[in-house]
Write a structure and sequence with these properties.
The complex is a heterodimer of chains A (163) and B (269). By secondary structure, chain A is mainly alpha-helical. Chain B has four helices and twelve strands; from the N terminus they run αααββββββββββββα. Chain B is elongated and about 125 Å long. The chains are: A mainly alpha (163), B alpha+beta (269).
Chain lengths: 163, 269
């Protein structure tokens, strides 16, 4: 339910949030990152692919661009979680949250998944026509903006189980 | 359990690759910019792959290539040798054009030339079989080189002008006084023109020619340029001469023989 609502929010952002070409605002990486860990990598990749395609289809972007950038996030999701939160998370069969694992670790996971997504997205969107400084600036601005917006969704996507 | 984990990872990788390729295909189909970009990247990749494979193939074909180059090198060396020989003949033919009436001219090549001694000599590749006789002069386009002293069947031994034992008759300018020219013994292109009477005036820079009085050399062959002079015994001038002939570069020469030499020597006897 929350995932669907955030997908709708992303759709609105993609269609109406065009302040500057330097900022690409996205919630998709945090949505994929926070998918329940019981969902397999293959399953997560299909969800990511369909989510990306849905955004591409219903917004003015290039078809396949969001999906192309989001599938790697889904593919590396469990590895990233294992690296940052440790293997005990999988052993206990629970999902991560800020309350249990701290803001730092969650923010790190979020930043890395956003970085991966935006690197591919900006690289493919520019298609070799944009200068490096532009891509660099766009990456930095988009990473900052998307990170701040994604933090707002953490309460919904990764709630503290103790509350 | 481990095998199952490996299979899961493999399946994930396959699905990941398939999804990425499908999305890349979709991207290229929906936007020209991305289509050109992917096509360009594909061409670059194929170029790198084919370029590498071509380099490997070329490396293993180097042996064959080397043999071919050796054969080509041999052929070119042969052509070069032929061309040099033709050039040598052309030079000799060119020298034959310099005609001196009353003198026989025989082209020759220097086989050996001594320098740096006080008594230098020259060996030529022509002997009496080729018509070379003793008491013949040796000249080039740049002046006198020496005098033939002895002749064998196929070679001639000559005294170089850079030899204290020889001197030749020379004249200052076209109508100046005549004297005796010999090597100064110091410089490779230095000579002294002696016994020029004091009444003959000259200017530094005048050309010195063979006089034609020696019977060995035709007249009017330019020898060098007159320099400073000094008076000897209050009676004659001794003039420094800078020779035109560069003895370090002598290779093709002309043997000149006075056809009337024997007859004139007969009168003298």
């Amino acid at each position: 339910m929350a995932y669907g609502l955030l997908l709708l929010a992303q759709l609105l952002l993609s269609n109406y949030f065009h302040i500057t070409p330097y900022i690409t605002l996205t919630l998709l990486p945090v949505m994929v990152l926070c998918l329940p860990l019981r969902i397999s990598t293959i399953g997560a990749m299909f969800i990511a692919c369909l989510s990306g395609l849905a955004i591409d289809l219903l917004s003015e972007g290039v078809l396949g661009l969001n999906a192309l950038s989001l599938v790697p996030v889904a593919y590396l999701r469990k590895g990233l979680v294992n690296l940052i939160f440790g293997p005990e998370l999988f052993a206990r069969k629970e999902d991560f949250s800020v309350g249990r694992y701290g803001f730092g670790k969650v923010a790190m996971a979020l930043l890395l998944s956003l970085l991966l997504f935006l690197l591919i997205y900006i690289w493919a969107d520019g298609a070799g026509t944009r200068p490096l400084w532009f891509n660099g600036l766009r990456l930095a601005a988009s990473l900052t903006a998307s990170f701040l917006v994604s933090l707002l969704t953490l309460g919904v996507l990764a709630p503290d189980p103790r509350k | 359990m481990k095998a199952r984990g490996f299979l899961n990872q493999l399946a994930s990788l396959v699905v990941f690759a398939a999804l990425e390729l499908a999305m890349l295909y979709l991207t290229t189909r929906s936007a020209d910019l991305q289509r050109i970009w992917v096509a360009r990247a594909g061409h670059a990749f194929m170029g790198a792959v084919w370029g590498s494979s071509e380099s490997v193939r070329n490396y293993f074909a180097l042996g064959k290539e080397n043999k071919m180059l050796v054969r080509e090198n041999e052929k070119l060396q042969q052509e070069l040798a032929d061309a040099k020989e033709r050039l040598r003949q052309l030079r000799i033919d060119t020298m034959r054009v310099n005609y001196h009436p009353g003198y026989s001219l025989i082209p020759a090549e220097v086989v050996k030339l001594s320098r740096g001694k006080q008594h230098n000599y020259i060996i030529l590749n022509r002997g009496f079989e080729d018509g070379v006789k003793e008491k013949s002069g040796i000249i080039t386009h740049a002046g006198v080189v020496g005098i033939v002293d002895a002749v064998s069947e196929h070679n001639a031994f000559a005294l170089s002008l850079q030899n204290h034992d020889i001197s030749i008759s020379a004249r200052l300018g076209t109508e100046g006084g005549s004297g005796i020219l010999s090597w100064d013994g110091i410089h490779s292109n230095g000579a002294l023109l002696k016994e020029i009477p004091l009444q003959y005036h000259y200017n530094v820079g005048d050309t010195v020619y063979t006089s034609g009085h020696s019977l060995l050399f035709p007249p009017d062959i330019p020898l060098g340029i007159a320099g400073e002079a000094r008076v000897v015994n209050g009676a004659t001038n001794e003039i420094k001469v800078t020779l035109f002939q560069d003895f370090s570069a002598v290779r093709y020469v002309m043997v000149v023989h006075n056809d009337a030499l024997d007859e004139i020597e007969g009168f003298q006897e």
